[in-house]
Amino acid sequence: MADVVLKNIQKQYSGNDKLTVKDFNIDIKDKEFVVLVGPSGCGKSTTLRMIAGLEDITLGELYIDGKLVNDVSPKDRDIAMVFQDYALYPHMTVYENMAFGLKLRKTPKDIIDKKVSEAAKILGLESELKKKPKHLSGGQRQRVALGRAIVRNPKVFLMDEPLSNLDAKLRVEMRTQITKLHKELQTTFIYVTHDQTEAMTMGARIVIMKDGDVMQIDTPQNAYEHPNNLFVAQFIGSPQMNIMEGKVVEENGRVIIDVCDKLKVELLPRIQEILKEEGYLDNNVYLGVRPEYISETEGSSLENEFTVIKSKVEMAEMMGFETYIHFNLGKNKLIARVNSSNTKSIDEEISLKIPAKNIHLFDISTEKVITTN
Ligand SMILES: Nc1ncnc2c1ncn2[C@@H]1O[C@H](COP(=O)(O)OP(=O)(O)OP(=O)(O)O)[C@@H](O)[C@H]1O
Ligand SMILES: [Mg+2]
Protein backbone atom coordinates (compact mmCIF):
# COMPACT_ATOMS: atom_id res chain seq x y z
CA MET A 1 0.00 0.00 0.00
CA ALA A 2 1.48 3.32 -1.02
CA ASP A 3 0.89 6.58 -2.74
CA VAL A 4 2.87 7.34 -5.89
CA VAL A 5 3.82 10.91 -6.73
CA LEU A 6 5.30 12.06 -10.04
CA LYS A 7 6.75 15.57 -10.01
CA ASN A 8 7.73 17.18 -13.30
CA ILE A 9 8.81 13.80 -14.68
CA GLN A 10 10.49 13.91 -18.08
CA LYS A 11 11.98 11.24 -20.30
CA GLN A 12 14.36 11.69 -23.17
CA TYR A 13 15.77 8.50 -24.70
CA SER A 14 19.39 8.81 -25.76
CA GLY A 15 19.64 9.45 -29.48
CA ASN A 16 16.14 10.92 -29.53
CA ASP A 17 16.03 14.73 -29.72
CA LYS A 18 12.40 14.86 -28.61
CA LEU A 19 11.04 14.31 -25.13
CA THR A 20 9.05 11.06 -24.91
CA VAL A 21 7.41 12.17 -21.66
CA LYS A 22 7.07 15.90 -20.98
CA ASP A 23 6.42 17.20 -17.49
CA PHE A 24 4.21 14.47 -16.00
CA ASN A 25 2.65 15.44 -12.66
CA ILE A 26 0.28 13.33 -10.62
CA ASP A 27 -0.44 12.50 -7.03
CA ILE A 28 -1.75 8.91 -6.98
CA LYS A 29 -3.34 8.14 -3.66
CA ASP A 30 -2.85 4.97 -1.67
CA LYS A 31 -5.28 2.25 -2.93
CA GLU A 32 -6.26 4.29 -5.97
CA PHE A 33 -6.83 2.72 -9.44
CA VAL A 34 -5.33 5.02 -12.05
CA VAL A 35 -5.31 4.25 -15.77
CA LEU A 36 -2.89 5.79 -18.29
CA VAL A 37 -4.55 5.87 -21.69
CA GLY A 38 -3.63 7.27 -25.09
CA PRO A 39 -2.75 6.29 -28.65
CA SER A 40 0.24 4.13 -29.54
CA GLY A 41 3.58 5.86 -28.92
CA CYS A 42 2.26 8.55 -26.53
CA GLY A 43 4.58 7.44 -23.70
CA LYS A 44 2.37 5.24 -21.49
CA SER A 45 4.77 2.30 -21.20
CA THR A 46 7.74 4.63 -20.77
CA THR A 47 5.99 6.31 -17.82
CA LEU A 48 5.09 2.97 -16.24
CA ARG A 49 8.62 1.64 -16.74
CA MET A 50 10.04 4.73 -15.03
CA ILE A 51 7.77 4.06 -12.05
CA ALA A 52 8.95 0.43 -12.04
CA GLY A 53 12.58 1.52 -12.23
CA LEU A 54 13.14 -0.29 -15.54
CA GLU A 55 13.85 3.02 -17.26
CA ASP A 56 15.89 5.98 -15.98
CA ILE A 57 14.09 9.22 -15.19
CA THR A 58 15.68 12.06 -17.19
CA LEU A 59 14.34 14.86 -15.01
CA GLY A 60 11.88 15.19 -12.14
CA GLU A 61 11.13 13.30 -8.95
CA LEU A 62 9.34 10.05 -8.27
CA TYR A 63 8.09 9.30 -4.76
CA ILE A 64 6.68 5.95 -3.64
CA ASP A 65 5.23 5.92 -0.14
CA GLY A 66 6.77 9.32 0.52
CA LYS A 67 10.32 8.22 -0.39
CA LEU A 68 12.27 9.62 -3.33
CA VAL A 69 13.03 6.52 -5.41
CA ASN A 70 14.66 7.89 -8.60
CA ASP A 71 17.83 5.99 -7.76
CA VAL A 72 16.31 2.98 -6.02
CA SER A 73 16.64 -0.27 -7.98
CA PRO A 74 13.45 -1.99 -9.27
CA LYS A 75 13.70 -4.88 -6.81
CA ASP A 76 13.80 -2.50 -3.85
CA ARG A 77 10.76 -0.46 -4.92
CA ASP A 78 8.23 -2.99 -3.64
CA ILE A 79 6.19 -2.96 -6.80
CA ALA A 80 5.01 -5.71 -9.14
CA MET A 81 4.54 -5.38 -12.85
CA VAL A 82 2.32 -7.46 -15.13
CA PHE A 83 3.00 -7.34 -18.85
CA GLN A 84 0.98 -7.98 -21.97
CA ASP A 85 2.79 -11.21 -22.88
CA TYR A 86 2.51 -12.85 -19.38
CA ALA A 87 6.11 -14.14 -19.62
CA LEU A 88 5.32 -17.44 -17.85
CA TYR A 89 7.97 -20.17 -17.67
CA PRO A 90 6.65 -22.91 -19.99
CA HIS A 91 8.43 -25.82 -18.25
CA MET A 92 7.07 -24.88 -14.81
CA THR A 93 3.63 -25.64 -13.41
CA VAL A 94 1.21 -22.91 -12.41
CA TYR A 95 2.28 -23.40 -8.78
CA GLU A 96 5.98 -23.14 -9.66
CA ASN A 97 5.41 -20.08 -11.82
CA MET A 98 3.66 -18.31 -8.97
CA ALA A 99 6.20 -19.45 -6.39
CA PHE A 100 9.29 -18.64 -8.47
CA GLY A 101 9.89 -15.06 -7.25
CA LEU A 102 9.43 -16.06 -3.61
CA LYS A 103 11.83 -19.00 -3.98
CA LEU A 104 14.47 -16.67 -5.39
CA ARG A 105 14.06 -14.55 -2.29
CA LYS A 106 14.58 -17.66 -0.15
CA THR A 107 11.09 -17.45 1.36
CA PRO A 108 10.37 -20.49 3.62
CA LYS A 109 8.37 -23.23 1.89
CA ASP A 110 5.36 -23.08 4.21
CA ILE A 111 4.96 -19.35 3.59
CA ILE A 112 5.26 -19.87 -0.18
CA ASP A 113 2.57 -22.56 0.06
CA LYS A 114 0.26 -20.28 1.98
CA LYS A 115 0.73 -17.29 -0.35
CA VAL A 116 0.33 -19.30 -3.55
CA SER A 117 -2.82 -21.00 -2.31
CA GLU A 118 -4.28 -17.64 -1.19
CA ALA A 119 -3.55 -16.09 -4.59
CA ALA A 120 -4.92 -19.16 -6.41
CA LYS A 121 -8.11 -18.85 -4.41
CA ILE A 122 -8.55 -15.16 -5.22
CA LEU A 123 -7.95 -15.87 -8.91
CA GLY A 124 -9.95 -19.10 -9.21
CA LEU A 125 -6.87 -21.12 -10.12
CA GLU A 126 -6.99 -23.71 -7.32
CA SER A 127 -7.65 -26.65 -9.63
CA GLU A 128 -5.00 -25.56 -12.16
CA LEU A 129 -1.95 -25.44 -9.90
CA LYS A 130 -0.35 -28.63 -11.27
CA LYS A 131 -0.87 -27.74 -14.93
CA LYS A 132 1.73 -26.31 -17.30
CA PRO A 133 0.92 -22.97 -19.01
CA LYS A 134 0.37 -24.62 -22.40
CA HIS A 135 -2.65 -26.45 -20.96
CA LEU A 136 -4.30 -23.21 -19.86
CA SER A 137 -6.57 -20.78 -21.70
CA GLY A 138 -5.38 -17.23 -22.41
CA GLY A 139 -7.43 -15.86 -19.53
CA GLN A 140 -6.04 -18.45 -17.11
CA ARG A 141 -2.47 -17.66 -18.17
CA GLN A 142 -3.11 -13.98 -17.56
CA ARG A 143 -4.43 -14.87 -14.11
CA VAL A 144 -1.26 -16.83 -13.35
CA ALA A 145 0.75 -13.72 -14.31
CA LEU A 146 -1.41 -11.73 -11.89
CA GLY A 147 -0.93 -14.44 -9.24
CA ARG A 148 2.81 -14.17 -9.56
CA ALA A 149 2.50 -10.48 -8.75
CA ILE A 150 0.00 -10.97 -5.91
CA VAL A 151 2.15 -13.43 -3.92
CA ARG A 152 4.76 -10.74 -3.49
CA ASN A 153 2.38 -8.42 -1.62
CA PRO A 154 3.64 -5.40 -3.53
CA LYS A 155 2.85 -1.85 -2.44
CA VAL A 156 1.97 -0.93 -6.01
CA PHE A 157 0.71 -2.98 -8.97
CA LEU A 158 1.77 -1.83 -12.41
CA MET A 159 0.05 -3.35 -15.44
CA ASP A 160 0.95 -2.69 -19.05
CA GLU A 161 -1.86 -3.69 -21.43
CA PRO A 162 -2.36 -7.00 -19.58
CA LEU A 163 -5.50 -7.90 -21.54
CA SER A 164 -4.54 -7.06 -25.10
CA ASN A 165 -3.74 -10.67 -26.06
CA LEU A 166 -7.20 -11.89 -25.05
CA ASP A 167 -10.27 -12.12 -27.26
CA ALA A 168 -13.00 -9.52 -26.83
CA LYS A 169 -15.27 -11.57 -24.56
CA LEU A 170 -12.48 -12.67 -22.25
CA ARG A 171 -11.16 -9.12 -22.09
CA VAL A 172 -14.49 -7.93 -20.70
CA GLU A 173 -14.48 -10.75 -18.12
CA MET A 174 -10.91 -10.05 -17.06
CA ARG A 175 -11.66 -6.34 -16.72
CA THR A 176 -14.21 -7.20 -14.05
CA GLN A 177 -11.78 -9.65 -12.42
CA ILE A 178 -9.04 -7.04 -12.19
CA THR A 179 -11.45 -4.47 -10.77
CA LYS A 180 -12.52 -7.02 -8.14
CA LEU A 181 -8.92 -7.91 -7.45
CA HIS A 182 -8.17 -4.27 -6.80
CA LYS A 183 -11.00 -4.09 -4.27
CA GLU A 184 -9.84 -7.25 -2.56
CA LEU A 185 -6.14 -6.42 -2.40
CA GLN A 186 -6.63 -2.78 -1.37
CA THR A 187 -3.43 -1.80 -3.18
CA THR A 188 -2.50 1.03 -5.52
CA PHE A 189 -2.99 0.01 -9.17
CA ILE A 190 -1.50 1.84 -12.16
CA TYR A 191 -2.80 0.38 -15.38
CA VAL A 192 -1.85 1.16 -18.98
CA THR A 193 -4.12 0.68 -21.98
CA HIS A 194 -4.74 2.27 -25.37
CA ASP A 195 -8.40 1.25 -25.14
CA GLN A 196 -10.61 4.08 -23.94
CA THR A 197 -13.44 1.73 -22.95
CA GLU A 198 -11.07 -0.23 -20.72
CA ALA A 199 -9.83 3.01 -19.18
CA MET A 200 -13.34 4.37 -18.62
CA THR A 201 -14.67 1.18 -17.02
CA MET A 202 -11.69 0.42 -14.77
CA GLY A 203 -10.06 3.63 -13.60
CA ALA A 204 -11.16 5.74 -10.67
CA ARG A 205 -9.11 8.38 -12.45
CA ILE A 206 -7.73 8.33 -15.95
CA VAL A 207 -4.71 10.11 -17.38
CA ILE A 208 -5.18 10.86 -21.07
CA MET A 209 -1.85 11.24 -22.88
CA LYS A 210 -0.84 12.40 -26.35
CA ASP A 211 2.71 12.69 -27.72
CA GLY A 212 4.25 12.65 -24.22
CA ASP A 213 1.89 15.33 -22.92
CA VAL A 214 -0.71 14.81 -20.23
CA MET A 215 -3.92 16.14 -21.78
CA GLN A 216 -6.23 15.64 -18.79
CA ILE A 217 -6.31 13.83 -15.45
CA ASP A 218 -9.85 13.25 -14.28
CA THR A 219 -12.57 10.81 -13.32
CA PRO A 220 -13.92 8.98 -16.39
CA GLN A 221 -17.22 10.82 -16.07
CA ASN A 222 -15.63 14.26 -15.93
CA ALA A 223 -13.33 13.52 -18.85
CA TYR A 224 -16.42 12.48 -20.80
CA GLU A 225 -18.64 15.36 -19.80
CA HIS A 226 -16.05 18.12 -19.52
CA PRO A 227 -13.13 17.42 -21.86
CA ASN A 228 -10.41 20.08 -21.46
CA ASN A 229 -9.45 20.01 -25.10
CA LEU A 230 -10.35 18.75 -28.54
CA PHE A 231 -8.10 15.70 -28.25
CA VAL A 232 -9.77 14.37 -25.09
CA ALA A 233 -13.19 15.20 -26.53
CA GLN A 234 -12.53 12.95 -29.50
CA PHE A 235 -10.48 10.26 -27.77
CA ILE A 236 -13.05 9.50 -25.08
CA GLY A 237 -16.43 8.18 -26.22
CA SER A 238 -17.54 5.87 -29.00
CA PRO A 239 -18.69 6.75 -31.60
CA GLN A 240 -16.60 9.83 -31.10
CA MET A 241 -17.86 13.36 -30.52
CA ASN A 242 -19.05 15.15 -33.67
CA ILE A 243 -16.85 18.14 -34.41
CA MET A 244 -17.69 20.96 -36.82
CA GLU A 245 -15.98 24.23 -37.56
CA GLY A 246 -18.23 27.26 -37.38
CA LYS A 247 -18.16 31.03 -37.15
CA VAL A 248 -19.33 32.94 -34.09
CA VAL A 249 -21.74 35.65 -35.28
CA GLU A 250 -24.21 38.03 -33.71
CA GLU A 251 -27.71 38.07 -35.23
CA ASN A 252 -30.63 40.04 -33.86
CA GLY A 253 -28.82 40.48 -30.56
CA ARG A 254 -28.09 36.74 -30.17
CA VAL A 255 -24.72 35.08 -30.50
CA ILE A 256 -24.91 31.92 -32.58
CA ILE A 257 -22.54 29.68 -34.49
CA ASP A 258 -22.89 29.53 -38.22
CA VAL A 259 -21.78 26.18 -39.64
CA CYS A 260 -20.96 26.40 -43.35
CA ASP A 261 -24.00 28.62 -44.00
CA LYS A 262 -26.17 25.56 -43.46
CA LEU A 263 -26.91 25.67 -39.77
CA LYS A 264 -27.26 28.33 -37.14
CA VAL A 265 -26.46 26.75 -33.81
CA GLU A 266 -28.22 28.12 -30.74
CA LEU A 267 -26.20 28.71 -27.58
CA LEU A 268 -27.02 29.18 -23.91
CA PRO A 269 -27.13 32.85 -22.85
CA ARG A 270 -24.18 32.35 -20.50
CA ILE A 271 -22.06 30.92 -23.33
CA GLN A 272 -23.06 33.79 -25.64
CA GLU A 273 -21.72 36.22 -23.04
CA ILE A 274 -18.43 34.36 -22.68
CA LEU A 275 -17.87 34.27 -26.44
CA LYS A 276 -18.45 38.02 -26.69
CA GLU A 277 -16.28 38.83 -23.67
CA GLU A 278 -13.41 36.69 -24.87
CA GLY A 279 -13.38 38.22 -28.33
CA TYR A 280 -14.64 35.28 -30.36
CA LEU A 281 -17.20 37.29 -32.37
CA ASP A 282 -16.59 36.87 -36.12
CA ASN A 283 -13.96 34.20 -35.44
CA ASN A 284 -14.12 30.50 -36.10
CA VAL A 285 -14.35 27.89 -33.34
CA TYR A 286 -14.73 24.13 -33.15
CA LEU A 287 -18.14 23.01 -32.02
CA GLY A 288 -18.58 19.55 -30.54
CA VAL A 289 -21.66 17.50 -29.75
CA ARG A 290 -21.81 13.87 -28.70
CA PRO A 291 -23.89 11.57 -30.96
CA GLU A 292 -26.28 10.66 -28.12
CA TYR A 293 -27.38 14.27 -27.70
CA ILE A 294 -28.55 14.56 -31.29
CA SER A 295 -32.09 13.20 -31.29
CA GLU A 296 -35.07 13.19 -33.62
CA THR A 297 -37.52 16.04 -33.26
CA GLU A 298 -40.50 13.83 -34.17
CA GLY A 299 -42.61 16.89 -34.72
CA SER A 300 -42.52 17.83 -31.05
CA SER A 301 -42.68 21.52 -30.34
CA LEU A 302 -39.28 22.93 -29.55
CA GLU A 303 -38.37 25.19 -26.69
CA ASN A 304 -35.69 27.82 -27.08
CA GLU A 305 -32.10 26.70 -26.97
CA PHE A 306 -32.47 23.89 -29.47
CA THR A 307 -31.01 23.75 -32.95
CA VAL A 308 -32.86 21.78 -35.60
CA ILE A 309 -30.95 20.02 -38.37
CA LYS A 310 -32.67 18.87 -41.55
CA SER A 311 -30.69 16.30 -43.43
CA LYS A 312 -30.79 12.94 -45.21
CA VAL A 313 -29.77 9.57 -43.85
CA GLU A 314 -26.45 8.55 -45.44
CA MET A 315 -26.19 5.30 -43.55
CA ALA A 316 -27.98 3.66 -40.62
CA GLU A 317 -26.06 1.21 -38.42
CA MET A 318 -28.40 -0.92 -36.35
CA MET A 319 -26.66 -1.69 -33.06
CA GLY A 320 -29.60 -3.38 -31.34
CA PHE A 321 -31.24 -1.00 -28.90
CA GLU A 322 -29.94 2.04 -30.74
CA THR A 323 -29.08 2.99 -34.30
CA TYR A 324 -26.19 5.18 -35.45
CA ILE A 325 -27.46 7.52 -38.13
CA HIS A 326 -24.75 8.96 -40.36
CA PHE A 327 -25.64 12.22 -42.08
CA ASN A 328 -23.90 15.17 -43.69
CA LEU A 329 -24.02 18.83 -42.94
CA GLY A 330 -22.09 20.67 -45.64
CA LYS A 331 -18.67 19.05 -45.58
CA ASN A 332 -19.17 17.70 -42.04
CA LYS A 333 -19.92 14.02 -41.56
CA LEU A 334 -21.94 13.55 -38.40
CA ILE A 335 -23.41 10.73 -36.37
CA ALA A 336 -26.56 10.66 -34.24
CA ARG A 337 -27.34 7.83 -31.81
CA VAL A 338 -31.07 7.34 -31.84
CA ASN A 339 -33.49 4.77 -30.53
CA SER A 340 -33.91 1.83 -32.94
CA SER A 341 -37.69 1.80 -32.66
CA ASN A 342 -38.06 4.08 -35.69
CA THR A 343 -36.22 2.32 -38.49
CA LYS A 344 -34.49 4.57 -40.98
CA SER A 345 -33.62 3.97 -44.58
CA ILE A 346 -30.92 5.53 -46.70
CA ASP A 347 -31.84 8.90 -48.26
CA GLU A 348 -34.80 9.32 -45.91
CA GLU A 349 -35.29 12.93 -44.78
CA ILE A 350 -34.64 13.42 -41.08
CA SER A 351 -35.15 16.21 -38.63
CA LEU A 352 -32.76 16.22 -35.69
CA LYS A 353 -32.24 18.53 -32.77
CA ILE A 354 -29.24 19.56 -30.66
CA PRO A 355 -29.85 21.04 -27.20
CA ALA A 356 -27.70 24.13 -26.58
CA LYS A 357 -26.66 22.76 -23.19
CA ASN A 358 -24.85 19.81 -24.81
CA ILE A 359 -22.56 21.87 -27.00
CA HIS A 360 -18.80 22.02 -26.39
CA LEU A 361 -16.72 24.81 -27.89
CA PHE A 362 -12.98 24.72 -28.54
CA ASP A 363 -10.51 27.39 -29.61
CA ILE A 364 -9.30 26.81 -33.18
CA SER A 365 -5.63 27.50 -32.50
CA THR A 366 -5.06 26.14 -28.96
CA GLU A 367 -7.73 23.41 -29.25
CA LYS A 368 -8.50 24.11 -25.58
CA VAL A 369 -12.06 24.19 -24.38
CA ILE A 370 -13.61 27.66 -24.43
CA THR A 371 -16.39 26.58 -22.20
CA THR A 372 -18.49 23.49 -21.62
CA ASN A 373 -22.03 23.21 -20.43
N1 LIG B 1 14.29 2.30 -25.64
C1 LIG B 1 13.85 3.29 -26.42
N2 LIG B 1 14.74 4.11 -27.07
C2 LIG B 1 14.30 5.12 -27.84
N3 LIG B 1 12.99 5.45 -28.02
C3 LIG B 1 12.08 4.69 -27.40
C4 LIG B 1 12.45 3.58 -26.57
N4 LIG B 1 11.32 3.02 -26.07
C5 LIG B 1 10.30 3.74 -26.58
N5 LIG B 1 10.75 4.74 -27.37
C6 LIG B 1 9.92 5.73 -28.07
O1 LIG B 1 9.17 6.46 -27.13
C7 LIG B 1 7.86 6.71 -27.60
C8 LIG B 1 6.84 6.24 -26.58
O2 LIG B 1 6.93 4.83 -26.44
P1 LIG B 1 6.03 4.02 -25.40
O3 LIG B 1 6.42 2.61 -25.55
O4 LIG B 1 6.17 4.64 -24.07
O5 LIG B 1 4.58 4.30 -25.99
P2 LIG B 1 3.18 3.65 -25.57
O6 LIG B 1 2.28 4.79 -25.27
O7 LIG B 1 3.39 2.63 -24.53
O8 LIG B 1 2.70 2.99 -26.95
P3 LIG B 1 1.94 1.59 -27.23
O9 LIG B 1 0.48 1.86 -27.01
O10 LIG B 1 2.24 1.33 -28.66
O11 LIG B 1 2.50 0.55 -26.31
C9 LIG B 1 7.75 6.01 -28.94
O12 LIG B 1 7.89 6.98 -29.96
C10 LIG B 1 8.89 5.05 -28.95
O13 LIG B 1 9.39 4.86 -30.24
MG1 LIG C 1 3.12 0.54 -24.49
From TrEMBL:
<protein>
    <submittedName>
        <fullName>Sn-glycerol-3-phosphate ABC transporter ATP-binding protein UgpC</fullName>
    </submittedName>
</protein>
<dbReference type="InterPro" id="IPR040582">
    <property type="entry name" value="OB_MalK-like"/>
</dbReference>
<dbReference type="InterPro" id="IPR017871">
    <property type="entry name" value="ABC_transporter-like_CS"/>
</dbReference>
<dbReference type="GO" id="GO:0005524">
    <property type="term" value="F:ATP binding"/>
</dbReference>
<dbReference type="InterPro" id="IPR008995">
    <property type="entry name" value="Mo/tungstate-bd_C_term_dom"/>
</dbReference>
<dbReference type="InterPro" id="IPR027417">
    <property type="entry name" value="P-loop_NTPase"/>
</dbReference>
<keyword id="KW-0813">Transport</keyword>
<dbReference type="InterPro" id="IPR003439">
    <property type="entry name" value="ABC_transporter-like_ATP-bd"/>
</dbReference>
<keyword id="KW-0547">Nucleotide-binding</keyword>
<dbReference type="InterPro" id="IPR003593">
    <property type="entry name" value="AAA+_ATPase"/>
</dbReference>
<dbReference type="InterPro" id="IPR047641">
    <property type="entry name" value="ABC_transpr_MalK/UgpC-like"/>
</dbReference>
<dbReference type="Pfam" id="PF17912">
    <property type="entry name" value="OB_MalK"/>
</dbReference>
<dbReference type="InterPro" id="IPR015855">
    <property type="entry name" value="ABC_transpr_MalK-like"/>
</dbReference>
<dbReference type="Pfam" id="PF00005">
    <property type="entry name" value="ABC_tran"/>
</dbReference>
<feature type="domain" description="ABC transporter">
    <location>
        <begin position="4"/>
        <end position="236"/>
    </location>
</feature>
<keyword id="KW-0067">ATP-binding</keyword>
<dbReference type="InterPro" id="IPR012340">
    <property type="entry name" value="NA-bd_OB-fold"/>
</dbReference>
